[in-house]
Amino acid sequence: MKLTIDNLQGSGPVDYTALLDRTLDAEIERKLNQPSMAQFTFVGDGAGFVPPVAGGRVVVTKEDGTLLFTGYLTQTPEAEYLGWGEQGGVYRYKLVAESDEVLLDQKAPTNRAPFVVRTAGAALKQVVEDLLPGMFDTSAVQDVGLLTSYRVDPQKKFSEIAGEIAQEVRGCYRAMKGEILLSGIGGNSFAIDEGDRNFSPGELAVLCREDVRNDITVIGEDEPQAYVRDFFVGDGLTQRFYLSQRPFSQSNSVLIDEEYRGSALDETRWAVKDPTSAVSVIAQTLQVQGGTGKDGDTSVSFAEQVELGGAMELQHGDVSITGPCRGVIGGLYAGAIAAAGCFAGFQITPSGSQSQIQALIQGVATGPVIATTEGHRYVLTTYVYSREVYRSGEVYRSSKHPASEAWGGATIPADVRFVLTVQDVNPASPESMVSGATVLYDGVVANAPGFCSYILVNAASMQCSIAFTYAQHISLSEVRTALPGASYVTQPVGSLSDGARCVIVGSTTLDFYPQYVPPLNTLIVASYRAYGRAVAEVMNAESVRALALGVDDGIRGLVRTMANPGARTQADCENAALAILDDATGPQCSGSYGLWSDFLPSNVADIFPGDAVAVNVPSQEAAFDAVVRAVSIRLADPANDRSFYKIEFQNESAGSLAFRDERSRLNIPLQDIPLPLTTVQVGTSYLDSITDAQIVQVSSTTVAVDIGMAVPSECGVEVRMHDFGWGVSNNRNLLGRFNSQSFVLPRLARTQTYWLRLYDQSSPPRYSRYAAALHLDYPL
């Protein structure tokens, strides 16, 4: 066995093996999805001894070349005076080293847009490249599984981020010999078998206990619940309107904030395809001067996909057009970069010595045309509104449902409204900087994709510059107004300086800015999702029946809050509960085993956390599969290349490998707790929600409603005054049950809210997961 340290002072690696203190064995500690640690002591005797220094490179290898540890000294060696020797003072030096990712841990992670629908391997490679480009070999990083959404927290170290990414896909990572490795749990396996001639019974400790949990309540995050539409009418004076519900609030996190301050595009944010060197960064602007003349050949793409969920504002920039242009700016693409596949963007085409701007929707130019003027600047903005905040469910894994068969991850369909605006800024007229923007398109695209690539520039041939690019989530409320007899138009919600005309204040008020007070008899509709807490209870009915005995009903409950991955919706909570139940209804088994390196199983050269172990020791009534969680290697006899391994292992009933939960300290309102489901009911217990219900006509005594969809066969629509009491046997607060898409409801007051859900003829009947709420505030 050999231990070398390179003090990085030009002398190269120095062999310190002979100086190891034999009274205190060196030790290497490996833990699942955490950095490995090494501790050892040297005895330095003589003037020629060179004490190692903090930051020195440590490598421990076996005689056959097998690497046991690579890393760096993380602190100045601690010296202990032992006395006077033949050549002077004798000191014992205690050294501590951490595996290779310590170099990455020293860097602050990039504050970047979340990874969405990326494999864990791709995300981990990106994080490594963001921190130390080209420093680590990532060829051994496997994809393992898909991340629905993962946000890199700049306050966390790389090792914490890597551990979370690995955990979400039930994988394991480690860093060694300048490589980052990521693989699925159980890629390597070995056995602890009583029948093995090298089996050491005295070094085995096993504990199995029956702690069955068959009724799991999972508490998730704040979630969007009821589909709300509030209807108001302007009186020409009022600028504040009171919303009926507390709107769900998206994180207002900034996805893109680019001011082009460097000499080139930031490779962690942008990918550039530029065969003719048409793209450059000069004087804090992105310059595009030229192109091949072919659609899709020259492009600037954002590094991450954009989720078309909730509400988002994409400011493509303050664009100066200096000559005829052909291409697309600010395009969202579901597939290849081509104008015909652009879901929404700004098409720029030549017009004499200048150009013209038009909305490009689903590959087709539509709406008004803006002719550009030399010297003017054009602020191009896209607003995205979807009543579905998340377009894909979270994914949960277990020992029975690994990466390829995980729970959840369903695609969530949605119609998406796109609003494309252009603000023409004339530097000679300062008032143009605050003038209203021209709406090029305001419409809904049915069944829009959940995720798109954001291509800032797709240039066939362009002569333009872009001063900034900015994207963030905005207020989820979609506000639309219409003058009597006119069509509805979308009013952007947000900052006045960004062109918005109204803002949501204090969570429950809609305020129009003074210059945009709705005129007399203006119809106002605010559409949003109500706020609530995601929670679900799921039980394994078979396990409950098996444990029921006398007065014991067999239920063994557990309440947990999901920490990683989080549970963003009630459906996520259900799938998380299924994953927990997979491993919660069996015995919890854990143990440890010690063996000398001479007796390692013949099929493995080394043992790492994440390896699978099959325990078969009938004399201790132990027969189960487990996963290694920690390995301690004591370098007891370096001269003879012998070490002692201590292995700790658990099955997934004793500790999950695919998620991290925590005890909940939240008090959930009783009305927010849904009825418990059995494992076979998950995914089939709810009908579709009514997402597009509208009030279409109002009188002093009646309200006409259109639910925006045909009523499915064997179903009806139940309408109540409050969002509780649902059920065919309960007629309290009931306003009616209907079998048609349109119907008339009684109006009982100036201000009134109607709650709607689908129901069917099952026994008991199934209902929509979330209600639709129609709120009316009209004069009588």
Question: How much strand?
Answer: over 45%
CATH secondary-structure class of the largest domain: Mainly Beta
Mean pLDDT over the residues: 92
- Helix vs. strand class: mainly beta
Number of strands: 54
Can you tell me about this structure?
With 780 residues, this protein is mainly beta. The chain folds into five domains: 2-99, Baseplate protein-like domain - beta roll fold (Phage tail proteins - horseshoe like beta roll fold); 109-184, Baseplate protein-like domains (Phage tail protein beta-alpha-beta fold, 3-Layer(bab) Sandwich), CATH 3.55.50; 189-211 and 587-650, Elongation Factor Tu (Ef-tu), domain 3; 256-474, Jelly Rolls (Sandwich), CATH 2.60.120; 686-777, Sandwich (Immunoglobulin-like). 6% of the residues lie in helices and 47% in strands. It is built from five helices and 54 strands. The strands form nine sheets. The chain has a 15-stranded antiparallel β-sheet that branches. Strands 1, 2, 3, 4, 5, 6, 7, 8, 13, 14, 40, 41, 42 and 43 form a 14-stranded mixed β-sheet that branches. Strands 15, 34, 35, 38, 39, 44, 45, 49, 50, 52 and 54 form an eleven-stranded mixed β-sheet that branches. Helix 2 packs antiparallel against helix 3. The longest helix has 15 residues, at 570-584. It is flat, with a radius of gyration of 32 Å. The mean pLDDT is 92.
